[in-house]
Design a protein that fits this description.
8-stranded mixed sheet; Alpha-Beta Plaits; single chain; binds (3R)-3-hydroxy-3-methyl-5-(phosphonooxy)pentanoic acid; 8 helices; 2 domains; 14 strands; Ribosomal Protein S5, domain 2; alpha+beta
Length: 323
């Protein structure tokens, strides 16, 4: 009753922001992401009759704050397997946890993959994706590698809300250059941010209504390997998400001065015909997505931006790996 799994972080090019059901954790909009090779969570789990409750060690430290969320996710797997054993979970990220680098995506994807194996459940990747979604919306996408689409779904029980692979990592190589502008970012978490945006932003309805069009353009751009079209729709969708968060009450501004300076640097590269675009999630880090031949130049330019503390470069990577 022991297993381990590796899952990688992913970055959304068409964003998930807003939930249709907070209990089921179903997204109000679909999303499209790329899975990153260089950023992963390794999770080990052991179900043990001697344990009175679940335990969680995150990066070598007991983590009581995350334990309730992990236990709730494990309950879904216990129900599926019809067992009532508690588990010892140990998870490590090879990148800073909670710094706006999608550690909940890789973390919950690795958790459900490891737990389902430890419990002897032969679940399909689709079923794992739906389970991971209930831990963290973006985790549903980290089950798969390369280019991935999350379907919002419409079923009352959330059963059609899972991710599907669009294109493999090797079919179209992209490189992601991450400019870290703040370490251990203290920001409004995505769950809270989504709730307050949905409740108070006058642009929320327009966001929902325009999401399908962005998904269609991005999906076609990926399947056609059309960098220019993908760049335009991804930047638009990212800025639209931040615009609606900014217009909420209270307003949510996830950026700092270096975030804006990185956008400027990327725009300067674009003016010089360098194939690169930016995307930004619920934190101040800037993710520059580029064709591999531009990666060195992009990294050099972003490293020189005042306020950039660190640069992480990643290719696209595979989905979950269990062992
Ligand atoms: O999966 P969550 O609840 O951490 O939300 C992710 C939200 C964004 O990163 C901003 C967008 C996305 O689609 O990943």
């Amino acid at each position: 009753m022991r297993s381990q799994a590796r899952a990688r972080a992913n970055i959304a090019l068409i964003k998930y922001w807003g939930k249709s059901d907070t209990e089921l954790n179903t997204p109000a909009v679909g999303s499209i992401s790329i899975t990153l090779d260089a950023l992963w969570s390794d999770t080990e789990i052991e179900f043990d009759a001697a344990l009175a409750q679940d335990t969680l060690s995150l990066d070598g430290k007991e983590d009581a704050a995350q334990l309730a969320r992990v236990s709730r996710c494990l309950d879904l797997l216990r129900r599926e397997a019809r067992v009532d054993l508690r588990a010892r979970v140990s998870s490590r990220n090879n990148f800073p946890t909670g710094a706006g680098l999608a550690s909940s995506a890789s973390g919950f994807a690795a958790l459900v993959a490891a737990a389902s194996r430890a419990l002897g459940l032969a679940l399909s990747p689709t079923a794992l994706s739906a389970l991971a979604r209930q831990g963290s919306g973006s985790a549903a996408r980290s089950i798969f590698g390369g280019y991935v689409e999350m379907r919002a779904g419409g079923a009352a029980d959330g059963s059609d809300s899972f991710a599907v692979p669009l294109l493999s990592a090797t079919a179209w190589s992209l490189t992601v250059v991450i400019a870290v502008t703040q370490k251990y970012a203290k920001v409004t978490g995505s769950g809270e941010g989504m709730r307050s945006t949905a409740d108070s932003s006058p642009y929320y309805q327009a966001w929902i209504e325009s999401s399908q069009a962005d998904l269609n353009v991005a999906r076609a751009a990926i399947l056609n390997q059309d960098f220019g079209v993908l760049a335009e729709v991804a930047e638009h969708n990212c800025l639209k998400m931040h615009a609606l968060a900014l217009a909420g009450r209270p307003p949510l501004l996830y950026w700092n001065a270096a975030t804006v300076a990185c956008i400027d640097a990327i725009r300067a590269l674009q003016s010089a015909s360098v194939p690169v675009f930016f995307t930004i999630d619920a934190g101040p880090q800037v993710k520059a997505v580029c064709l591999p031949e531009a990666a060195e130049q992009v990294a050099t330019q972003l490293r020189a931006v005042p306020g950039v503390l660190d640069i992480i470069v990643s290719e696209l990577g595979p989905g979950i790996e269990t062992g």
